[in-house]
């Protein structure tokens, strides 16, 4: 991936973008257990698979969501940030995507 | 090729000496199975047999021996860390490095060069003083030095760095060294092999069997093995192994790239690191400049290098050493760095009984190879964490007791 297609600005060099990590949902801090909270604070899904990620086009300050296979560095789809509130479908399994 | 050399090469009287025995099949069970035949895994196997008398050990490697981060790092050895846990741990490693070549009867090209961590800002100087004081407290030779000292040690450096990042001083760490990384894996591998350890290359672990919350066996592409102890030392592949035993950690994987120049005559004796310029460089025994920089900016589990990296690193090298403008880059490559949020490793026992972890070695694992082998073999043999790795425990995140080592990472990642 050297060119990333931004939903707002079209195809731009990847150096214009900042990676914001995986899209994650916080448990309710008032009701969750200590273990659930520390799991949310620290732990990550480290293995390669298609993941929803936050990316920002720095020049325009535009945040959006990218579904990217972290094994092959292939962008599967991009979404406007509002989609996160509406709920993103679970990404398809990475089985067979290995190179 | 001279005819005599060709004849020697083909002669039956002088067969190519083999470093390891080739085993055609796996046994049905082992006392300990080590996943990953890199420096860390082989060192653990070596000390398990040598110091703990556990010989029925298999080391499984999905690729070839030493082909992961052991063969991809920039070979720098130092102990000028920031936390007491880190300083004590890496200092023990530097001590072990001293007689390792004699131990193996193999030339590791271990070369003590002195190590400068350059400071370009007041805040960086403050961190250097902090590290120097912690180091001295634990008997490690480090000191904060001024720009004139840097210039005496590295006469060819441009102290102004092209005018935009002038060098104010440095942390000078006298024991800083480099070594031939492949030989480290071969030395540990041969030593373990001679003591009865089986090294199985081209053998990928596909699953780990658990019974009642404890390890019962390992499934591989060449068959299943029964074992009650598994040591995982697989660097960037750690999350994939952890998925097999359903353990969750903060480990995230980014590629880390490095490159070497064409060989030039010796001019750079010490090892130089600049956090602000994202460079670390040393000159190998062959005369190549071995150079590295910071992590690639996003998660990826592939090792394809990029042009961006070469451009950025070369430009920062030229800030320090403008006369290198005509020197060519020979090779570049990448490895998979298993990063942790506090820049310290995750080592020792895990909630799964019989599953031991030596991971989270991100960008700082090569220098720790001997001490990791020592402490992990102790941990596996006794079932208790070695005292030197207590600051690196698996459970430290759940207890919010991090071992903040980011200030001593070679460059600001």
Task: Write a concise keyword list for the protein shown above.
heterodimer; A: 99 residues; mainly beta; Folate-binding fold; 6 strands; globular; disordered C terminus; B: 413 residues; alpha+beta; FAD/NAD(P)-binding domain; D-Amino Acid Oxidase, Chain A, domain 2; eight-stranded mixed beta sheet; six-stranded mixed beta sheet; 10 helices; 20 strands; 24% strand
**Biggest interface and its residues per chain?**
A-B, 23 and 25 residues
Spans where pLDDT lies below 50 across 5 or more residues of chain A: 94-99
Beta-strand content bin of chain A = 35-45%
Task: Work out the radius of gyration of chain B.
Answer: 22 Å
Please report the number of helical segments of chain A. Answer: 2
How much helical structure, as a percent, in the residues of chain A? 10-25%
Largest sheet of chain B: 8 strands, mixed
CATH homologous superfamily heading of the domain at 1-24 and 48-89 in chain A: Folate-binding superfamily
Compressed to H and E, one letter per element, the order of chain B equals HEHEEHHEEHEHEEHEEEEEHEEEEHEEEH
Write down the overall mean pLDDT of chain B: 95
Coarse structural class of chain B: alpha+beta
What is the strand tally of chain A? Answer: 6
Computed CA radius of gyration of chain A, to the nearest angstrom: 15 Å
Average of pLDDT of chain A: 90
Helix-strand sequence of chain A: EEEHEEEH
CATH structural architecture of the largest domain in chain B: 3-Layer(bba) Sandwich
Q: What is the count of DSSP helices of chain B, taking H or I runs of 4+ residues?
A: 10
User: In the residues of chain B, how many domains can be counted?
Assistant: 2
Distance between the first and last residues' Cα of chain B = 46 Å
Describe the structure.
- The complex is a heterodimer of chains A (99) and B (413).
- Chain A is mainly beta and 99 residues long.
- Chain A has a domain at 1-24 and 48-89: Folate-binding fold (2-Layer Sandwich), CATH 3.30.2270.10.
- Chain A has two helices and six strands, in the order E-E-E-H-E-E-E-H.
- Chain A has helices at 34-42, 82-86; strands spanning 3-6, 10-13, 17-22, 50-57, 62-69, 74-80.
- In chain A, a hairpin with a 4-residue loop joins strand 4 and strand 5.
- Chain B is an alpha+beta fold and 413 residues long.
- Chain B folds into two domains: 25-72 and 182-250 and 342-408, FAD/NAD(P)-binding domain, CATH 3.50.50; 112-174 and 252-339, D-Amino Acid Oxidase, Chain A, domain 2 (2-Layer Sandwich).
- Chain B has helices at 3-10, 39-52, 84-98, 100-104, 122-137, 147-153, 181-194, 238-244, 307-320, 369-382; strands at 32-35, 57-60, 76-77, 111-112, 115-119, 142-146, 169-173, 177-178, 198-200, 205-211, 214-220, 223-226, 230-232, 252-261, 271-274, 279-283, 289-295, 329-339, 346-349, 355-359.
- In chain B, strands 6-7-5-15-16-17-14-18 form an eight-stranded mixed β-sheet, sandwiched between helices. In chain B, strands 9-2-1-13-20-19 form a six-stranded mixed β-sheet.
- In chain B, strand 19 and strand 20 form a beta hairpin.
- In chain B, helix 2 packs parallel to helix 7.
- The longest helix of chain B is centred in the first third of the chain and has 16 residues, at 122-137.
- The termini of chain B are far apart.
- The model of chain B has no long low-confidence stretch (mean pLDDT 95).
- At the A-B interface, helix 1 of A face helix 8 of B.
């Amino acid at each position: 991936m050297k060119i990333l297609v931004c939903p707002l600005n079209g195809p731009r060099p990847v150096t214009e973008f900042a990676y914001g990590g995986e899209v994650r949902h916080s448990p309710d801090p008032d009701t969750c257990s200590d273990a659930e909270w520390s799991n949310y604070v620290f732990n990550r899904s480290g293995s390669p698979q298609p993941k929803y990620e936050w990316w920002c086009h720095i020049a325009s300050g535009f945040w959006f969501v990218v579904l990217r296979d972290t094994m092959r560095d292939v962008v599967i789809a991009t979404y406007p940030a509002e989609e996160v509130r509406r709920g993103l479908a679970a990404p398809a399994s990475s089985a067979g995507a290995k190179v | 090729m001279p005819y005599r050399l060709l004849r020697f090469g083909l002669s039956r009287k002088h067969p190519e000496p083999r470093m390891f025995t080739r085993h055609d099949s796996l046994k049905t069970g082992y006392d300990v199975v080590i996943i990953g035949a890199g420096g860390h895994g082989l060192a653990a196997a070596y000390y398990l047999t040598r110091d703990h008398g556990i010989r029925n050990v298999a080391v499984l490697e999905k690729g070839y021996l030493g082909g992961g981060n052991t063969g991809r790092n920039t070979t720098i050895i130092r102990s000028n860390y920031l936390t007491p846990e880190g300083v004590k741990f890496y200092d023990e490693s530097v001590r072990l490095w001293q007689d390792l070549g004699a131990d193996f009867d193999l030339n590791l090209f271990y070369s003590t060069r002195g190590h400068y961590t350059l400071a370009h800002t007041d805040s960086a100087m403050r961190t250097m003083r902090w590290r120097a004081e912690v180091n001295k407290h634990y008997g490690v030779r480090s000191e904060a030095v001024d720009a004139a000292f840097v210039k005496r040690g590295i006469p060819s450096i441009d102290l102004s760095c092209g005018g935009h990042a002038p060098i104010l001083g440095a942390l000078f760490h006298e024991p800083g060294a480099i070594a031939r990384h492949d030989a480290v894996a071969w030395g540990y591998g041969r030593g373990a092999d001679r003591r009865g350890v089986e090294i199985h290359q081209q053998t990928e672990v596909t699953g780990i069997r658990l019974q009642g919350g404890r390890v019962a066996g390992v499934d591989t592409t060449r068959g299943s093995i029964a074992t009650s102890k598994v040591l995982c030392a697989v660097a960037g592949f750690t999350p994939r192994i952890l998925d097999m035993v359903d353990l969750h950690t903060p480990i995230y994987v980014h590629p880390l790239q490095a490159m070497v120049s064409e060989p030039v005559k010796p001019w750079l004796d010490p090892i130089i690191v600049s956090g602000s310029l994202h460079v670390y460089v040393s000159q190998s025994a062959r005369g190549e400049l071995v150079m590295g920089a910071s992590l690639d900016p996003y998660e990826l589990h592939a090792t394809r290098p990029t042009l961006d990296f070469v451009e950025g690193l070369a430009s920062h090298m030229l800030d320090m050493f403008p006369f290198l403008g005509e020197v060519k880059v020979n090779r570049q490559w990448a490895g998979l760095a298993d990063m942790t949020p506090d820049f310290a490793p995750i080592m020792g026992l895990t909630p799964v009984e019989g599953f031991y972890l030596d991971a989270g070695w991100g960008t700082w694992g090569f220098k720790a190879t001997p001490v990791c082998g020592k402490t992990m073999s102790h941990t596996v043999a006794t079932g208790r964490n070695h005292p030197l790795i207590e600051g690196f425990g698996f459970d430290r995140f759940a207890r919010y007791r991090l071992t903040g080592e980011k200030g001593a990472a070679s460059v600001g990642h």
